[in-house]
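ok, trying the design again with the full structure, not the truncated one.
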């Protein structure tokens, strides 16, 4: 019986613009799609650019009260300094649709993708990066009226990896097959590179600049979200774990000190031995992105976040499983919520749970890993809710929120 979720708890799901909208033509990721063998294109994606009302209605009808979605910088500012009023109006309509349907919008300003021109100018390491991101955020502030939760940037630690991979792809010597940044698979694929600290520090700087601006101009609570690996040390590897944790996530969690909240994003857990991060062991229960089935990761992630940040309001902004079997999704999420509830009982100030994802969507280079509460027919764009959507709504209702 769930009792620990406080009144006003947000229950909902998350998405990202590039993964669901379709035809994000002016973005850097769009330009990179299809370049490597094995990499699929996003194309029309789920056509949520046009069907967002239907998507939000599915959430609201299921009994959920929150929706995390993003604003796409490449649409707002397709060329430097040219702000599209029509696109601002589009995202304002999305925000108003959420209000109308009784959904609390949690709005992300940057979810991995940037305008292509920004990448060509040097991207996050470019001289004008912070200024450019600030100008975009400034352009967006007028449409954030009434929005209570704003995420400046999604998973800066994953973004740092993606930037490293993109650089490697451009490198002539980096021959071989494309590797999805979110797929943690067995050999012979190369291991994911550790996030670059220099990029990480720049992202922290950009986050702080935009946080201060948003605080001046809006009434929103401002934070960012961190991909949490829920590392667990083998005996004798505690020091190694701490060292890796700093590179992979604590730099970014420390960067959230002074924010209004921090977003926890958790999927699986990984062992750290004396030689470093151990690959997920092969197991029939492994998910479609090659990670171990570890619903307990959410509890580990929340507790670690409390420890590093010193205890600030937390939103679970992503948690989910890539599986073709919806009963597994329900089992995983039910277990994850028990671990979350235990962390709350121990004092974590958690304000909401947003499942990843509302829709089966474009998983950064491939379509096979399905994380959605709703299946999407990619020919007709018909939405087919899975039992997990109603189950999550029922779970929210049982907690009285
Ligand atoms: O799809 C991604 C999302 O964009 C960021 N967090 C992890 C998800 C699943 O891999």
């Amino acid at each position: 019986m769930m009792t620990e979720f406080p009144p006003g708890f947000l229950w909902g799901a998350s998405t990202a613009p590039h993964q669901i909208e379709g035809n994000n033509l002016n973005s850097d990721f769009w330009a990179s799609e299809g370049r490597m063998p094995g990499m699929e294109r996003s194309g029309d994606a789920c056509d949520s650019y046009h069907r967002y009302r239907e998507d939000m209605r599915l959430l609201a009808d299921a009994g959920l009260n929150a929706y995390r979605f993003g604003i796409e910088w490449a649409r707002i500012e397709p060329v430097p300094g040219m702000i599209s009023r029509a696109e601002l109006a589009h995202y304002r309509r999305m925000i108003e649709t959420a209000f109308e349907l009784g959904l609390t919008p949690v709005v992300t300003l940057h979810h991995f993708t940037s305008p292509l021109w920004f990448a060509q100018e040097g991207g996050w390491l470019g001289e004008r990066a912070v200024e450019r991101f600030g100008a975009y955020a400034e352009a967006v502030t007028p449409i954030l009226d009434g929005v209570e939760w704003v995420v400046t940037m999604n998973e800066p630690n994953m973004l740092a990896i993606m930037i490293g991979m993109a650089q490697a792809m451009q490198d002539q010597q980096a021959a071989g097959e494309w590797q999805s940044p979110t797929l943690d698979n067995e050999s012979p694929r190369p291991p994911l590179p550790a996030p670059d600290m220099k990029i990480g520090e720049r992202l922290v700087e950009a986050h702080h600049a935009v946080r201060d601006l948003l605080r001046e101009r809006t009434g929103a609570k401002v934070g960012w979200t961190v991909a949490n690996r829920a590392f667990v040390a083998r005996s004798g590897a505690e020091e190694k774990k701490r060292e890796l944790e700093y590179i992979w996530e604590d730099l970014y969690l420390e960067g959230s000190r002074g924010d209004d909240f921090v977003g926890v994003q958790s999927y699986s857990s990984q062992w750290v031995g004396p030689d470093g991060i151990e690959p997920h062991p092969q197991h029939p229960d492994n998910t479609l992105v090659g990670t171990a089935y570890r619903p307990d990761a959410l509890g580990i992630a929340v507790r670690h976040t409390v420890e590093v940040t010193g205890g600030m309001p937390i939103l679970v902004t992503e948690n989910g499983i890539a599986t073709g079997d919806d009963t597994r999704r329900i089992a995983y999420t039910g277990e994850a919520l028990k671990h979350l509830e235990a962390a709350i009982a121990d004092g974590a100030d958690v304000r909401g749970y947003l499942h990843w994802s509302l829709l089966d969507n474009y998983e950064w280079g491939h379509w096979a890993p399905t994380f959605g509460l709703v299946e999407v027919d990619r020919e007709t764009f018909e939405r087919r809710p899975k039992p997990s959507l109603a189950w999550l709504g029922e779970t929210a209702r049982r907690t009285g929120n």
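Keeping the full-length input from now on. DSSP finds 13 helices and 13 strands in the chain.
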